[in-house]
Amino acid sequence: MDLRFRVEKRPPAPMWLKVTAPVISVVAALAICSALILQAGVNPLYGYYHLFVGALGSTLGLSETFVRFSPLLFTGVAVALAFTAKFWNIGAEGQLYAGGLAATFFGVSFIGAPSALIIPLMFVSGFLGGALWAVIPALLKTKLKVDEVVTTLMGNWIMWYFTSYLLTGPWKNPVTVWPESAAIAPTAEFPILVPGTRIHLGIPVALFCAFIYFLIHARSSWGYELKAIGANPKASNLMGINVTRGLVTVAILSGGIAGLAGVSELGGIHHHMKTDLSFGFGYTGIVIAMLGGLHPIGVTAAAFFMSVISTGSQVMYRVTGVPYPISEIIQGMTLACLLLGVFFTEYRIRRKKE
Amino acid sequence: MSEPVITLAFAVSVLAMTFRMAVPLIFGTVGEAFAERSGVLNLGIEGMMLVGASVGYLVSYHVGDNWAGVAAAALAGAAMGLLMAFLTVSLGAQQHVAGIGTTIVGSGLSFYIFRLGVPLVSGIPPTVTSFPELNIPLLTDIPILGPIFFHHQALVYVALAVVVISAFIFYRTRFGLIIRAVGENPRAADTAGIDVFRVRYVCLILAGALTAVGGSWLSIAQSRFFLPNMTYGRGWICIALVVFGYWSPLRILGGALLFGGIDALQLSLQAVGVEIPYQLFLMLPYVVTILALIAVSRRAKAPAALLKPYRREE
Amino acid sequence: MMESGGVVVELKGIVKRFPGVVANDHVDIDLRSGEIHALLGENGAGKTTLMNILYGLYRADEGTITVKGRQVTLGSPKDAIDLGIGMIHQHFTLIPPMTVTENIMLGSKSEGFLTDPKRVEEAISILCDRYGLRVDPKARIWQLSVGEQQRVEIIKALYRGANILILDEPTAVLTPQETDQLFTTLRQMKKEGRALVFISHKLDEVLAISDRITVLRKGRVISTVNAAQTSKIELAKMMVERDVVFRLSKAKVQKAAEALKLESVSALDDRGLQALKNVSFSVYEGEILGLAGVAGNGQRELAQLLTGIRKRAAGRIFIRGRETTDYTPADLLDLDVSYIPEDRIESGAILDLSVTDNLILKIYPALSKGLLLDRSAAAEHADRLIKEFDVVTPSRDSLAKTLSGGNIQRLILARELSLRPRVIVASQPTRGLDVGATEYIRRKLLAERERGSAILLISEDLDEIMSLSDRIAVLYEGRIMGIVPAEKAKIEEIGLMMAGTSMKPDKEAG
What we know:
The complex is a heterotrimer of chains A (354), B (314) and C (510).
Chain A: E1 5-9, H1 15-39, H2 44-56, H3 59-84, H4 92-109, H5 115-144, H6 148-168, H7 202-219, H8 221-231, H9 233-238, H10 243-270, H11 281-291, H12 296-320, H13 326-346, E2 347-351
Antiparallel strand pairs in A: 1-2
Helix pairs in contact in A: 1-13, 2-3, 2-12, 3-7, 3-10, 3-11, 3-12, 4-5, 4-6, 4-10, 4-11, 5-6, 5-10, 7-8, 7-10, 7-12, 8-10, 11-12, 11-13, 12-13
Chain B: H1 8-37, H2 45-63, H3 66-90, H4 95-117, H5 145-149, H6 154-172, H7 174-184, H8 186-191, H9 196-222, H10 234-244, H11 249-271, H12 278-299
Chain C: E1 7-18, E2 21-32, E3 35-40, H1 47-54, E4 62-67, E5 70-72, H2 77-82, E6 85-88, H3 100-105, H4 117-131, H5 146-159, E7 164-168, H6 176-191, E8 195-200, H7 203-209, E9 212-217, E10 220-226, H8 232-240, E11 258-268, E12 274-284, E13 288-292, H9 299-306, E14 314-319, E15 322-323, H10 329-332, E16 337-340, H11 344-348, H12 355-359, E17 368-369, E18 372-373, H13 375-388, H14 405-417, E19 423-427, H15 435-451, E20 454-458, H16 462-468, E21 471-476, E22 479-485, H17 491-498
Parallel strand pairs in C: 3-8, 3-9, 6-7, 7-8, 13-20, 13-21, 16-19, 19-20
Antiparallel strand pairs in C: 1-2, 1-4, 4-5, 9-10, 11-12, 11-14, 14-15, 17-18, 21-22
Helix pairs in contact in C: 14-15
């Protein structure tokens, strides 16, 4: 490929560029996807108007956006935390299901127990379930040097098939024909925080997790260790930092938080364990983590943005007929544009002299 | 429950089905082998397969010609490969992140164009006619072996040819040598005058095209229509198979037949009413991959430059 | 000496800039056929950059390149190879799992679509015979020694028809015997009319092999002279623009307790071969023990062993009386051992972290209350160290990767020496640094010596060893060939030991 341009490294980018890059990526992605909207015979501005107004402009829309915000924030934080230490956790999806399964066990078995007991139990067990599922690839990486990208990815499907097996077999709901578990105890259902909406306990818990991530990232010595490990594990090891322990710990925390996403959807929305508990939240979490620059505030904003896109696309579909998978395309294109933008903050393109 | 179901006819039909189930795996995995041998982990494979399935079906339906559908799928897949190449090679982005992004785009696109391109009658898309099964003179009529090996749709034989051709390319041609060099030590290849970027671009475009053809098989030849997410993780199985097959086309064929066979078996057992926990069968490829990875990590046979973007400091 | 032929390559007015530095500053140089032209200069003088431009790896910002009378643009190594230019780099560009034949087939135009290993092997044999090289075409690169790999590189270049051959510090990894063999090969190639460029910083070799010498300093050509008409002192002067003081003055220090002791230590390298064989020596407080030796004789493994990254196969290690044989880096933290690593940007600093974060790498637990890190204490600490060690940085929050090589080394020194270590292992501490940074580092090491630290100085730079050490040990193929007191050491003896001749059993000094 004989490029007519030359690529050279530029001096480190100023902070304002790093912050605006994600925003520009979003705008660019929306612009690119407007071509697709046109293809559907709809004026893009009209379509986007309904997307944003639909997601933010009404009580119903806004509340649904927040409902979607919960699992996305969980997975976004989970992935960002892992990525900081360069533990490439592609397995948030599987960890979500693992957490859901663990919580289902308690939710279904403890009929009659009070909410104050059963709900925390579900959170704890969900955390542990997700953590356990993430620890396995982490140990494979630290003990056997097996790359975690493929193992976490495989883990998603193993856990999903296991879920499917349980829900069509031993844990099948005796009442209906759907592949789902029995209903969780009524006391296990998360309280609705805003009457008339579906906004449930999961949302504040997710925000709390984001806050914990903020503390880790900005203030804690453990967060400092993670950054060192992620940036240069060899040097960190030489400095006496226990890289193995750091990676395993981050896997536990990351997997656990992803597991909480599963608990949130189980307890807050569906009340049954289902094979479609997640709509790719684990993968969207990756996009969110990258878009947010692995920074707690960025990740929170990115998660909220993705929720808007997701909810808004459904409204746009109902009003204009633009198929709602446009939300996935916007997601992916945003990431692609972000990668392009990140490139420009580190490199400069110059025309060749000749 | 168990009446004797394992009759000869059953076995023959399962074995024949093995080839059909293996087709998308062969295309996808061989494509992935090209990508990974040149040093790029292509996690966009699932999205590429979906795009191939969707485009193949839509074009076949609208044009009325299956081969046109396959060709269109190949082009669409090549375009996705180009996207992936741009992200990972030119921009030097993290390969798994770029891959997940490409898969998300591909998945969304495949669904989007399907919705726009085809009218649904009470939620069911129209079907296309599948490829005819070939009747090879003399060979098809051999008892037992005939139905298993010599009575398939043309694409099956194309898949087998692809395996042989790629093995030849990797081990007996200069291009194969160059690909391997780029995947092992891009700096060395660069100073040998090899255009690392171009090689990776070509490999990824090829991977995209092959994978998409595999996807089109699913929609045109097997189910005869497209459904969202119909690949059901087959792309990820290809990632698994590449490791399991040690990045070598002939071994990959063996692995594809193995996994295809497991799939064929569990489907056939279900069809005759045997109650099996079929999900546990379906889990097998993923579990096996992890075991294969553990074995491989001991011997470090993966292309050494896999996952590292190459940037020549200017 | 044969008369050189016509000019084959002319570089005029070459300018190459990188962020923050001008690597080549209006360089003019010409190469003639049948001549060995040396590029002499210290690290960072611009020699490799200039040749990388000729080889098409870099693009010059200004200037022209003329090859065989025609002005050319070299966009990539392929263009250079097409013009008959070949380059043998310091770091070999070979593919370890592939065979010699496969490596040579790469990048050669004469191959068609299909590969023909037999034909290539024949061609290789012919080349080997002509130049007295010996290589097994079927061997895989990882099985070959460094000297053999270099021969493969040379054959590779010749196979591609290189008439102009550039060798970048080729003797850095060779023993004196291998160097002689290389010189024989080079002279043969010269006789055939090829133009050879020999990049080096070693005065003796340059005078031995070259016809003309161009001295570069800080990106500029100082002068181009005929080898026969110059001397070592004159060249050295041109390289550093002042009379080089070869021996730094050292105050005599009372030697005290044994701070570091290795007893019959053996260790394997990454390939499972023996890297260290039965190594024993001690370093005392207040002394610098210089470990000389050509790179690749076990120095890296020794440093890794002492800092806890590598496990020993046999033997014991003691630090200040305490057995530390299988200690990990975390265990060593409490023992006041400092390590200045040879690969500073890989092991010594974390480039993507800020200067402050780098400076607190070893002490951050002390700056934390529970899980909370005290950022203002960290900032204070960083400011203090930046000032004390003259680290040039826009701010304490700048990322370490923005620092120059010399300042990264200062950063590492600051982090380590501020902890008042008792034992220092310094590995190639001045490699790749400019004269100013080099002197600073050496002064700091001497100051530590006066403070009473025990310093193990591992260096390929013999001048550095000779000027800084109290005693000199030589490592060859994993064995200590001898240990001599510095005042009595003669450079020829050390050279012999580096090449494998051990001294008569000498009493250890002190």
